[in-house]
Structure formats: C-alpha cells, structure tokens
Amino acid sequence: MESLDLLNEKLDMLLKKYATLETDNERLRATIDGQNKVIQRLHKKVNTMDNEMVSVHLGKAEISEDEKDNMRRQLDGVIGEIDKILVTLND
C-alpha cells in the first residue's frame, strides 16, 4: 500500500510538472509568433528601403555622403533589430 501511495505522489508531481511545461510552451509559442510578425515587418521595411535605394541610384548617378550615411544608419538600425529578435529566438 505504501508503494501505491508513493507512486500516486510521483504521478501527481509529474502531472503538475507537465501542466506547467504545457503553459510555458504555449507562452513561448505566442512569443515566437509575435517575434516572427516583427521580423516580417522588418523584412518588409528593409525591402522598401532597398527599393528606395535603387530608385535613388536610378534617379541620379551620384549620392552625397550625407545620403549614404543616412541610408547606412537606417539599414544598420533595421539589421540591428532583426539581430536582436534572432538572438531572442535562439535563447
């Protein structure tokens, strides 16, 4: 009888642990979904900026250094955001 009680206690403990893990799993899935949406939005922004850069190149043969610096800063910011999200996803 004592072994059945011990087995029952272990089973209860495992069921509680399973429920906790399921809750954590759902929360993590929601976080990943949110981060994937942010990544998609940032990819669209990068594509838009890339298209704008192509338009600028087509519009004039030479880009000023200020414009180049501004574009680099914008791209670095977007790439930095994507990197942060990827690091978070890998954790």
**SS-based class:** mainly alpha
Main beta-sheet annotation: none
Structurally, the number of domains stands at 1
DSSP strand count: 0
Per DSSP, what share of the residues sits in E-state strands of 2 or more residues?
under 5%
Textual characterization of the structure:
The structure is a single chain. α1 packs antiparallel against α2. It is built from two helices and no strands. The chain has one domain. It is mainly α and about 90 residues long. The mean pLDDT is about 85. The chain is rod-shaped, with a radius of gyration of 25 Å.
Which properties best describe this structure?
mainly alpha; 91 residues; 92% helix
Question: How would you summarize this macromolecular structure in one to three sentences?
Answer:
With 91 residues, the chain is an all-alpha fold.
Please write out the topology.
Elements: H1 2-59, H2 65-90
Helix pairs in contact: 1-2
